[in-house]
Amino acid sequence: MNDSDTRPLNVMFVITSMPVGGAETLLVNLTRRFDKTRIKPMIGCLKEQGVLGDELANEIPVFEHLINHKYDVAVARRLRKLFRKNEVDAVVTVGAGDKMFWGRLSARGAGVPVILSALHSTGWPDGVGRLNRMLTSITDGFIAVARHHAEFLVEFEKFPEGKVFMIPNGIDTLRFKASDSSRQQWRQKVGIPENAPTLGIVAALRPEKNHELFLECASRALKQVPDAHFVIAGDGPGRPQLESLADEKSIADNVHFLGSVSDIPGVLSMLDVFALTSHNEASPVSILEALSCNRPVVATDVGSIKESVLHGATGYLCEPGNAEDVSSRWIELLTDPDLREQMGRKGRAHVVDNSSLDSMTDGYTELIESLYRQKKSTCRRSSFSNSIATWAGSVFPVTSAN
Fold it and tell me: Which residues form the Glycosyltransferase subfamily 4-like N-terminal domain (predicted)?
């Protein structure tokens, strides 16, 4: 695995922060599941470590406040120092933006053997950006989370096919199971009647998640289902504007903003239906978690969502931005408990069969170890790519669609 085959590889994941969100939750699950005799994970947060970072800091090294402002070029020096001090063998940037640029550039400057970028969205509408594309040559691989997403990275971002690897998102299906006791506790805590039909979203309050559409659909649904309640779990700078919008639509009494929460299985247990109204996604982990908790999903048909939300079977896919389409599906499920139960069963079975956390963890471990071996043995790039292509399991280069 490494020079002596006696120590784990030190792997630093570089991310902006660790609030409650899909990519952040995925990273928590991944770092917890690694075989620590093979991979020693660490996390470097450019900004504050956030609620999930606080939780994880009790288990692994978490570093924060590495950047002071957007144009703080001294972040490169801080990251190089951090990588060298911790003898980092591999850097994995998580998401696009500043962390993707500074993380890779600093890793190269620090002489880190393996440099990877894990991407969890399509970066709509501009992609990862020109500066990040400029660092393609120093990057050993780009990790996609679904086949459609991998094709996007090749066709839109123009990353070389031989550098794009697909590792499907995975979740802990034993942890994400519906719980009657959690349902009751959370409903009492939030103030939702026991039998009130309830729909919710778990997503950071970022523009691409389109919470404005969520609130518009809630307003429409309440006209047909006046006892319904709507839950928004997640936080972000847009929260005051969204709360004001709920007031303007006169639905504030039925809309509950939870902020950042760590007990996502409990929140999902409280719901009857899960929704996602995003402008763009890759393969959101929140959908997998909801399906695992036997909750049908209504989501906009973007990115690779269709690979987990099977239209008419585990939920419904809707036209992005179409409030009429989305709200009609909400109303259908909020008023039909039998349909919810049927779709919920199929959804959990689909996730158990196709979205294992162990498969995802094995994929990351094998990719990092294989790249490290190749780098340390100074193989030529061509033979390196050919050897990676022979792997079995969930990791493989993706050929672009013709």
Answer: 20-173
With cut-offs at 50, 70 and 90, classify the pLDDT of residue 78: very high
Across residues 64-93, what is the average pLDDT?
97
Average pLDDT over all residues of the chain: 91
Residue 338's alpha-carbon distances to 247, 296, 310, in angstroms, are 33, 11, 18
- Give which of 318, 276, 314 is closest to 295, Cα–Cα: 314
d(CA 101, CA 93): 9
What backbone phi and psi angles, to 5 degrees, belong to 2?
-140, -165
Q: If residue 115 lies in a helix (H) or strand (E), which one and from where to where?
A: strand 114-118
Neighbour-count burial of 5, counting CB atoms closer than 10 A to its CB (0-12 exposed, 13-18 middle, 19+ buried)? exposed
Report the CATH number of the 180-354 domain: 3.40.50.2000
Phi and psi for 141 in degrees, rounded to 5? -170, 155
Q: Which CATH superfamily is domain 9-170+356-388 in?
A: Glycogen Phosphorylase B; (3.40.50.2000)
Domain boundaries, the chain: 9-170+356-388, 180-354
C-alpha distance from residue 158 to each of 154, 162, 368 (Å): 5, 11, 22
One-letter amino acid at 1 equals M
CA proximity to 159, closest of 402, 391, 397: 397
**Amino acid type, 328:** S
Cβ proximity of 283 and 39 under 8 Å: no
The yes-or-no verdict on residue 402 having pLDDT over 50 is no
Two domains, one topology: 9-170+356-388 and 180-354: yes
What is residue 399's three-state secondary structure?
A: coil
- Do 340 and 272 meet the contact criterion of CB atoms below 8 Å apart? yes
Going by C-beta distance under 8 Å and a sequence separation of 6 or more, which residues neighbour residue 128? 96, 100, 119, 157
pLDDT over 70 for what percent of the chain? Answer: 91
Is the CB of residue 294 less than 8 Å from the CB of residue 178? yes
Going from the C-alpha of 162 to that of each of 33, 282, 364, 389, the distances in angstroms are 27, 20, 16, 8
Burial class (CB in 10 A: 0-12, 13-18, 19+), 86: middle
Q: Please state the φ and ψ torsions of residue 82, each to the nearest 5 degrees.
A: -65, -45
Q: 320-364, pLDDT tens digit by residue? A: 999 999 999 999 999 999 999 999 999 999 999 989 899 999 999
